[in-house]
Each structure stands twice: as C-alpha cells, then as structure tokens.
Amino acid sequence: MSENETKKPAEEEVKKPHSAEKKPEAKEVKANPEIEALKKQVEELKAKYEEAEKNFETADKDREEWKNKYYGAYADMANTRKQVEREASDFKTYAIQDFAKEIIPTLDAFDYSLKTKPEEEAQKKYFEGFEMIHKKLMDSLKGQGIEIISPNEGDDYEPNTMQALTTVPGKEDNKIHETIVKGYKLHDHLLRAAGVISTIKEVPAKSDKKDDTKADKK
Question: What pTM, to 2 d.p., does this model score?
Fold first, then answer.
C-alpha cells in the first residue's frame, strides 16, 4: 500500500464534516409548591416578628410608665397614711384641749378658795373636803397630760410660759416675786400662761459725798 493511500482515509476523516452539536434546550423550572409555601411562611413569620418587636417596645415603654405611676401612687398612699396616723394621734392627744380651757376658771376659783385656811373647826372640815376634791380633779387632769405652771418665789422668769402682770424692785432681774394665777399646758400646747409679778434689779442711787466734801472745803 502506498503512502498516499494510507493517508487518504485519515484526511477523509479530518475533512469529514462534523455533525452540528445539539445544544441542550433550557428546561422550564417548575415552581415547587412546598418551597413556595415555606417562603410564604417565612415572610409571615418575619412580619409577625417585626410586629411583635414593635409591640414589645411599646409594652416596655408602657411598663416603665406604669411602674412610675405605681411608685408615685405608693408614695402618695404612704404619705396619706402617715398624715392620717399623725392627725389621729394629735386628735387623741389634744382631744380634751377645749374642755381643759373651759375648766381653767373653775380651777382658779378653787385656788382662790384654798388660799386662806379657816380657823373654825366646822369650816375646817369643809376646807379639807374642798382640798380633797381639788386634788382628785388635778390628778385626773395630770393623767390626761395637763401640766400646771406655778413658779415659786425666786424662780427664773420664763417668757414662753409666764406673763409678767407687773414688776417690783429686786436684787436681780427677771426673778419671780409672786404667782398671781397658775398657768396650764396640755402636753406641748400652752393653754394659758402663768400670771406673775417679776423683779427688776434696783439701780443704786448716786452718792452726793463728793458734793458734800467740796462744800466742807469751802
């Protein structure tokens, strides 16, 4: 076989036209119902999450607001309770204040009546009875918180609980010379100041010895 004959089939094979290559046709992707359903659920869940987040923020703000309102209301209730308790305590403490003021003139009458002791035996018994009644009355008033203001001679004058009706000369200023009417207090409330006579220190008179000496020298 010649060399030309051997090459011929090969050349024929090379020259042989190739068949046109067929391109694969694009297939239409059919939507998967399950995937679409899942996508829809995801979108719904996302929307619900966003709505829930907004509601949570609103609820958090409302919670803070109601929390502040609660503490404010609690503080108001606590203050109101303390005020009511204080008013109840004051009412209980000073309930007899008006009665005590009305009975003070009666106590003054007792004091005036008991200043002078009688000498006759028959009158002494009445006097002793008066003293017993007065003592029981004063004990009852003291038990209710009433304090008697009755300074003795020589005590310091207290302007907060005493009223100087007049003054007399004395060795010192602002000393009690005599108590005219007793004063009364109900706990820390002054019902009436004690009426007293206070002292004013005497100013020594100027001596005229110098003048006398000058006159003698003349």
Answer: 0.57
Parallel, antiparallel, or unpaired for β 176-181 and 194-201?
antiparallel
Each residue's pLDDT expressed in tens, for the chain with a length of 218 residues: 444 554 455 455 545 554 445 555 555 556 677 777 787 888 888 888 888 888 878 887 777 788 788 888 888 888 888 888 888 877 777 888 888 899 999 999 988 888 888 888 878 888 888 899 999 999 999 998 999 999 999 999 999 999 999 999 988 899 999 999 999 999 889 999 999 999 998 766 665 555 555 555 54
How many Å apart are CA 22 and CA 5, to the nearest integer? Answer: 34
